[in-house]
C-alpha cells in the first residue's frame, strides 16, 4: 500500500513523536509540533500512538490511495474531502483504493496531522521516521514530501469509520493564545520592569516562525541588568557563555524578539534564555498562524507539573473513548 | 469578476522585490498561472498564481499586509 502524493502542499513532512536520545549531540528532538494531535490521529485509526503521520502546515496536500485504509485528520481546522465528499475532523473515515484525499483553505490552527492505518513506514533514521530537512534525516531521503512521492504504509485496513474524539478533548489555542512560561536560569539578566513587561505585553507570531523556533513580535524590547562581559560571552547583553537550550526555551537575541525553540531547534548556543514554555503548551504553539496574538503567562514548577498531568489526563480520556 | 484568494496565511506582497513594479496593474492581461503576488511565511516566499484568465482590475489586500488563508488578494475581470 502506498500514498501517492499528487500535490505536497507546503513543507508537508513525515513526523512521529521524535528522535529520542541524541539532543546532547546536537541532533534535534524532531517529531510533530503538535504531538497531542498526532497521538489522537493515530488512536483514531488504530495505530500505535507514535506511528509516523504526515504533518502539513497551513495547506493540505492531495493524496491518492492505492489501497483501502482508515484515515483521520486532527489539529488545524480545514475542510477535508475524499473524492470531493466532506469528512469530519478528529474522526476516522475510510479512503478506498483509487480515491483521493484533499483539503480546502485553512480555517483555524496551523498544522494538520494525517494518520493512515498501518502508519507510514519509510525507513527510520536514528530511531525515528521524523523528517529533519537541515540534517537530511528521516522522512523521504531526509526531505519534505514532493509531488510524485509514493509513501509506503503498514497496509492494514484499520478499524474503519465512525471513531471520533469528543469536542472537549480537541485541544487548541484560545484567543489570544495563552502560553505558560516557567522563568529560567538567566531570568536575573532582565531588569524587574523588563521581566514584568514580557508578561504584560501582547505579542504576535512573526511570519518566519517554523519548526525550529517560533518568533514573536510587538512587545516592548527587554532591558538587561548591567554586567561585566564574561570571558567567552559575546558583547551583546543578551549573550552568555555558551549554554544548553531546552525544548521550549525562550531566547531573545538583542532583547527584541523572543524565540521559543521547538522540535527542530539547536541544543545549545550563546543567547540567554529567560525561561521555557511549559511542555504542556508546546503543542499549542504548533497551531499558531502568523500574526496570531499571544500572551505569555508566568507559572511556577508546581503549576507546570499540574498542567503536564492535565494534558496526560486528556490523552488518557481519548484512549478510553476509543477503547 | 473573479477573486484571487490567498492559499495560506502570511504576509502579502504585490511586488517581486521592494525595488520592482507590482506584478500586475489595472488593465493588464492575466493568464492562468500568472503570478500576481507573494506570500511570505516560514522564511519562504510562495508565489500566488491566477487560476482564471482575464483582465486585472485591482489588488484588494495591501502590499506588506498580514493575510489569512482564503482572504481576497486581488480581483480579475473575466
From TrEMBL, chain A:
<feature type="domain" description="Carboxyltransferase">
    <location>
        <begin position="24"/>
        <end position="312"/>
    </location>
</feature>
<dbReference type="InterPro" id="IPR003778">
    <property type="entry name" value="CT_A_B"/>
</dbReference>
<dbReference type="GO" id="GO:0005524">
    <property type="term" value="F:ATP binding"/>
</dbReference>
<dbReference type="InterPro" id="IPR029000">
    <property type="entry name" value="Cyclophilin-like_dom_sf"/>
</dbReference>
<dbReference type="Pfam" id="PF02626">
    <property type="entry name" value="CT_A_B"/>
</dbReference>
<protein>
    <submittedName>
        <fullName>Biotin-dependent carboxyltransferase family protein</fullName>
    </submittedName>
</protein>
<keyword id="KW-0067">ATP-binding</keyword>
<keyword id="KW-0547">Nucleotide-binding</keyword>
<dbReference type="GO" id="GO:0016787">
    <property type="term" value="F:hydrolase activity"/>
</dbReference>
<keyword id="KW-0378">Hydrolase</keyword>
<feature type="region of interest" description="Disordered">
    <location>
        <begin position="144"/>
        <end position="175"/>
    </location>
</feature>
<dbReference type="InterPro" id="IPR052708">
    <property type="entry name" value="PxpC"/>
</dbReference>
UniProtKB/TrEMBL annotation, chain B:
<dbReference type="Pfam" id="PF00364">
    <property type="entry name" value="Biotin_lipoyl"/>
</dbReference>
<keyword id="KW-0444">Lipid biosynthesis</keyword>
<comment type="pathway">
    <text>Lipid metabolism; fatty acid biosynthesis.</text>
</comment>
<keyword id="KW-0275">Fatty acid biosynthesis</keyword>
<keyword id="KW-0443">Lipid metabolism</keyword>
<dbReference type="InterPro" id="IPR000089">
    <property type="entry name" value="Biotin_lipoyl"/>
</dbReference>
<comment type="function">
    <text>This protein is a component of the acetyl coenzyme A carboxylase complex; first, biotin carboxylase catalyzes the carboxylation of the carrier protein and then the transcarboxylase transfers the carboxyl group to form malonyl-CoA.</text>
</comment>
<protein>
    <recommendedName>
        <fullName>Biotin carboxyl carrier protein of acetyl-CoA carboxylase</fullName>
    </recommendedName>
</protein>
<keyword id="KW-0092">Biotin</keyword>
<dbReference type="GO" id="GO:0006633">
    <property type="term" value="P:fatty acid biosynthetic process"/>
</dbReference>
<keyword id="KW-0276">Fatty acid metabolism</keyword>
<dbReference type="InterPro" id="IPR011053">
    <property type="entry name" value="Single_hybrid_motif"/>
</dbReference>
<dbReference type="InterPro" id="IPR001882">
    <property type="entry name" value="Biotin_BS"/>
</dbReference>
<dbReference type="InterPro" id="IPR001249">
    <property type="entry name" value="AcCoA_biotinCC"/>
</dbReference>
<feature type="domain" description="Lipoyl-binding">
    <location>
        <begin position="1"/>
        <end position="77"/>
    </location>
</feature>
<dbReference type="GO" id="GO:0009317">
    <property type="term" value="C:acetyl-CoA carboxylase complex"/>
</dbReference>
<dbReference type="GO" id="GO:0003989">
    <property type="term" value="F:acetyl-CoA carboxylase activity"/>
</dbReference>
Amino acid at each position: 500500500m502506498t500514498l501517492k502524493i499528487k500535490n505536497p502542499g507546503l513543507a508537508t513532512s513525515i513526523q512521529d513523536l521524535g528522535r529520542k536520545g541524541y539532543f546532547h549531540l546536537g541532533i534535534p528532538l524532531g517529531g510533530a509540533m503538535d504531538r497531542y494531535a498526532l497521538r489522537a490521529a493515530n488512536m483514531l485509526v488504530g495505530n500505535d500512538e507514535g506511528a509516523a503521520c504526515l504533518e502539513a502546515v497551513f495547506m493540505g496536500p492531495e493524496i491518492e490511495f492505492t489501497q483501502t485504509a482508515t484515515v483521520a485528520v486532527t489539529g488545524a481546522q480545514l475542510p477535508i474531502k475524499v473524492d470531493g465528499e466532506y469528512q469530519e475532523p478528529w474522526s476516522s473515515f475510510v479512503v478506498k483504493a483509487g480515491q483521493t484525499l484533499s483539503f480546502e483553505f485553512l480555517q483555524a490552527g496551523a498544522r494538520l496531522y494525517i494518520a493512515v492505518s498501518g502508519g507510514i513506514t519509510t525507513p527510520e533514521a536514528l530511531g525515528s521516521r521524523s523528517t529533519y530537512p537541515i540534517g537530511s534525516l528521516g522522512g523521504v531521503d531526509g526531505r519534505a514530501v514532493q509531488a510524485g512521492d509514493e509513501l509506503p504504509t503498514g497496509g492494514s485496513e484499520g478499524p474503519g469509520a465512525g471513531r471520533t474524539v469528543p469536542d472537549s478533548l480537541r485541544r487548541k489555542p484560545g484567543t489570544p493564545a495563552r502560553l505558560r512560561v516557567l522563568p529560567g536560569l538567566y531570568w536575573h539578566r532582565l531588569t524587574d520592569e523588563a521581566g514584568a513587561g514580557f508578561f504584560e505585553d501582547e505579542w504576535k507570531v512573526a511570519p518566519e516562525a517554523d519548526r525550529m523556533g517560533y518568533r514573536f513580535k510587538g512587545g516592548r524590547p527587554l532591558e538587561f541588568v548591567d554586567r561585566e562581559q564574561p570571558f567567552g560571552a559575546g558583547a551583546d547583553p543578551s549573550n552568555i557563555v555558551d549554554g544548553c537550550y531546552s525544548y521550549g526555551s525562550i531566547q531573545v537575541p538583542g532583547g527584541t524578539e523572543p524565540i521559543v525553540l521547538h522540535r527542530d531547534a539547536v541544543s545549545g548556543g550563546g543567547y540567554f534564555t529567560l525561561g521555557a514554555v511549559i511542555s504542556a503548551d508546546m503543542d499549542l504553539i504548533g497551531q499558531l498562524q502568523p500574526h496570531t496574538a499571544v500572551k505569555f503567562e508566568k507559572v511556577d514548577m508546581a503549576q507546570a507539573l499540574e498542567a503536564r498531568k492535565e494534558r496526560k489526563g486528556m490523552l488518557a480520556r481519548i484512549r478510553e473513548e476509543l477503547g | 469578476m473573479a477573486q484571487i484568494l490567498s492559499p495560506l496565511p502570511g504576509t502579502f506582497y504585490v511586488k517581486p522585490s521592494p525595488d520592482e513594479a507590482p506584478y500586475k496593474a489595472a488593465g493588464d492581461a492575466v493568464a492562468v498561472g500568472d503570478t500576481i503576488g507573494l506570500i511570505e511565511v516560514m522564511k519562504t516566499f510562495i508565489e500566488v498564481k491566477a487560476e482564471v484568465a482575464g483582465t486585472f482590475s485591482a489588488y484588494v489586500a495591501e502590499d506588506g499586509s498580514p493575510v489569512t488563508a482564503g482572504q481576497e488578494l486581488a480581483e480579475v475581470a473575466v
